[in-house]
Request: fold
Amino acid sequence: MTIHPDPSSEARLGALDRIGEIGYPTKRDEAWRHAPHRALGELTFGPPVAPGIGVPAELDNQIPVLEGPRVVVVNGSVDASLSNLAGLDGLRLSSLAEVLAERPEQVAAHFEQGDSGIADVFVALNVAYGADGAVVQVADGVVLDVPIHIVDVGLPAAAQNATCTGVLIDIGVGSSATVIETRVGAGSEFGGSNIRTTIALADDSTLEHVLLQDVPSVQVHLSRVDVTQRAGSVFKARSFNLGAAYGRIAYNVQLAGTGAHADLSGLFFGFGDQTLDQQVNVVHAAAGCTSRQTYRGVLDEESTGVFNGGIDVRPGADGTDAVQSNDNLLLSDRAAINTQPRLEILADEVACKHGATVGQLDETALYYLRSRGIAADEARRLLINGFADQAVDDVGIETVRAWIIHRLGHDHA
Amino acid sequence: MLHVENLTAAIGDKPILKGVDLDIGEGEVHAIMGPNGSGKSTFAHALAGRDGYEIGGVATLDGSDLLEMTPEQRAAAGVFMGFQYPVEIPGVNNMYFLRTALNSVRKARGETEVGARDFLAVAKQAMELVEMKQDFLDRAVNAGFSGGEKKRNEILQMAVMEPRLAVLDETDSGLDIDALRIIASGVNALRGPDRSMIVITHYQRLLDYIKPDFVHVLVNGKIVQSGDHTLALHLEDHGYADFVNHDLDDAPEKPLTGAPS
Amino acid sequence: MSEATREIEELTEASYEFGFSTDLDTDVAPPGLDEEIVRLISAKKDEPEWLLEWRLKAFEAWQAMEEPDWAKLDIMPIDYQAISYWAAPKQKPVLDSMDDVDPEIRDMFDKLGIPLHEQKMLSNVAVDAIVDSVSVTTTFKATLAEAGVIFCSFSEAVQDYPELVREHLGSVVPVRDNYFAALNSAVFSDGSFCYIPKGVRCPMELSTYFRINSQNTGQFERTLIVAEDDSHVSYLEGCTAPQRDENQLHAAVVELVAKDRAEIKYSTVQNWYPGDENGVGGIYNFVTKRGRAHADAKISWTQVETGSAITWKYPSVILQGDRAVGEFYSVALSSKRQQADTGTKMIHIGKDTTSSIISKGISAGNGQNTYRGLVKVMRSAENARNYTQCDSLLLGKDCGAHTIPYIEVKNPGAQIEHEASTSTVGEDQLYYCRQRGMTEEDAMSMIVNGFCREVFNELPMEFAVEAQRLLSVSLEGSVG
Ligand SMILES: Nc1ncnc2c1ncn2[C@@H]1O[C@H](COP(=O)(O)OP(=O)(O)O)[C@@H](O)[C@H]1O
Ligand SMILES: [Mg+2]
Reply:
């Protein structure tokens, strides 16, 4: 690990101090059991690399084309020429660096994580170095129909192969919005991106947050999404963990207000020797909240899938209703899945359920399709696609759905 | 035997029963009818002693104050309630449940407990009454039962418990015609000079099979009309519109004009 | 708070029915643990050299190991030097006839409801009774001998069947397996040994009762069951300990070997002293139980855990042979300040192996109940199957339920299903039962027993009745 001092604010300096103290996670850390510890140690972090590199043309067909507000971050810095920061009514879209310079109090919470908020060294690194990125601020009482697109591009260089990006999303009282985060990269160099998104949902607000992780298979990708939900708010997370040698998407959702609802669904689809890791923790800290976790894994070739999902019901969170499921298809005899659906319940009158399955394609269904004249391979493909596409169905916006189907190669059926 | 006077029930500060008066004599069958949400089930629960209501007024069975008693004491005193929504108790064997219930009541009354063999004989008889198969008793209480099976199980329990007062809450709802006939004939077989019944329904249909001695109409927490079984026929033709459209606090206590005789 | 919830709280504050202490003359070693104590234990038992070596190796391993980090447990640090590692009732441990048994010990077993007298014996149950660390007597020896079954105390086995012991001891739970297994291997005092020859169906249920009697002694038994090809045995284990205001340590190791087509059914009803409402006293129960199932063999663990201040226990099956079957049925109750962290590990190695897990956790009072399980399917385990169901029942608002299953699959032919749910006893269920005349206490006990039905069904009859009673007693209390 290389440390470049730079951070300007106290909170960020403090995080820099903690890095050495915390150290890298090991196999004994529950949340990092299946991570490639050696590769993580080879990432070199530092302040954002100056923009101006542009986005390689090869990425054109990896990034969904969406009209409307857009922030493009290249190696941790916003590229203004590729972005469309013109806000809409009730939406203010800015680069994080700009907000940090001009109105830092508005992003203070993103950086002032406190010791307990710094769950691991990568959060600390992100607090220290993730000084640019996107800030999405939606005023009270606004309904945005157009999705906001945040694109992160990682182009690792030998000197510093890992970048940090920060994303903040604030949704005002009673408002609703959709944010798509696309994470891509280029090149055949080893490297990584460490992206942290903090989301605050005010009373009765709604956010659909789509996360597409599709970085090159030589890279390491670390996503962390921290969500705080106030009363009556609705958070929908849709994650597609597809790229990277090690692709990690972690959610930490705090249901802090009565009657809040979190609905997380995700697909991880691995090939080669990829490890795709989902770490999901939903904390029921207030009464009468509901949560759903629906994760699907398809593991082919030598890939490994990880699902570590928790439902954590705190004292006083009476009337909790939480359901979690993780269903997996193993397609090759060298693929592996490690799934750990956890329930921790310290409240009364709760209804919690979780389930996990590992299996193969349904023989009867295969037979059924073949008896209708579909060739065995084609029938298999149909069933696999059908399994995976159920995760895609949860995405609200048609163009995004279509793009994911396209990316999965499922659109020529 | 049952005397109810100005009985009120509220949940929180929401009044549900607003002063019910009802007297039931030995061996009588009373039907209570009324639209959805009028308080019929609440009335039944008030007699059976469910938690969570603020109760006011008077309810005595054979002179003893029901309202002072816990649910199990009321059961021992002879109150049996057939639930509108019988409760599922996974893992608890139906027969074991019923025997424990019977013996609890007998014990509370200072009677000897019934042994396994004698109980089986009692249960068999009761099962014939509701045309149930033996395996019914081996399943867990109501768990995975169809709607009709649950209702038949309630009548089976009534047959075994031999109550003084049976309160049957919508025992007819969700039944096909055969099941309805089975249940009705079961109930009729259990009618007797020392057993009174309150039959709650909102269809007249059941009353074709179980002829009530009296019919009461409960609307918005009050009995707004009482009469003989012909009142039920009137309701069949006219619905509850006559009652619900009026200012109920001033509902007339006289028989309806134009009721068929 | 509702009527029912309050009642539940009262119900669960039951006092420990078996908390008496029998006044036995006991021969106790001074507290503390070093190589000398290990040698002393071995010498007291007149053990062969190889076993002493084995113990010393374990002791060395233990010293180098770190005490586990107590994830979910709220635990007082254990001072291993304050514990006495050897205690024997002062009399010759092994007796020939029932009549020779110390009347006080007999009395104690009577109080426990374990009739040791031949005439009072549960029909067809052979009992090996272990008080503190020494096996007091084994009944029905003759009948068993006729069938060729060996059932004796571990010490006797070491003397009489050294080859069998040597071959299998540590073959399933190696000395370094974990901290407590290493400790046990170094200092184990006695336990039961059971050997079923080829093709023999053991003519009766075998049973062991464990009881910790002396203060500040740890109990470290070692149980080894070997079932040869095509044999069958059902083994029962019961436990009690007197009420003490200091924690006592119990660290047993149980090893099961089921050879081809053999079947071992191991049932436990554990009722160690749980400590009082304030968490004072009680047994720390850290047990390693594991079986190895060869081809077509079946190992089935059934446990009802109502006692101990802390239970830390994961009866496991290594499904080594093709078509081997592993089962785990568990009821764990934690009330007062009890903490139970229990579950199982099913390691699928052979082809077509199947395992099923049914776990019922009940939390009441301030109890914390954790299911922690691992289902691991190795690459070699073609076509492995697992079904897991974990249900938790919460009685009251100050308790907790935790379900932490690990599923690790490396073979695409595997079919794994895990289901879990958490619920409370419904007010409507209680009311329904009370409307039918049952007291609230009876209703509660009936509903909780119903919740555990699938597990109780797996227990041999006498044990099922006992388990049901224990559960009711543990939930019962000041009411009525
Ligand atoms: N637990 C409850 N909390 C609040 N209101 C209730 C509850 N139970 C019943 N009620 C209300 O009381 C009224 C009477 O209900 P009920 O006695 O079930 O009617 P019926 O059986 O005649 O359909 C309804 O308005 C119903 O919504
Ligand atoms: Mg009703």
Q: What stands out?
A: Chain C touches chain A through 34 residues (CB under 8 Å). The pocket of magnesium ion (ligand 2) is lined by residues B 40-41, 84, 169-170 (CB under 6 Å). The first helix of chain C runs from residue 3 to 11.
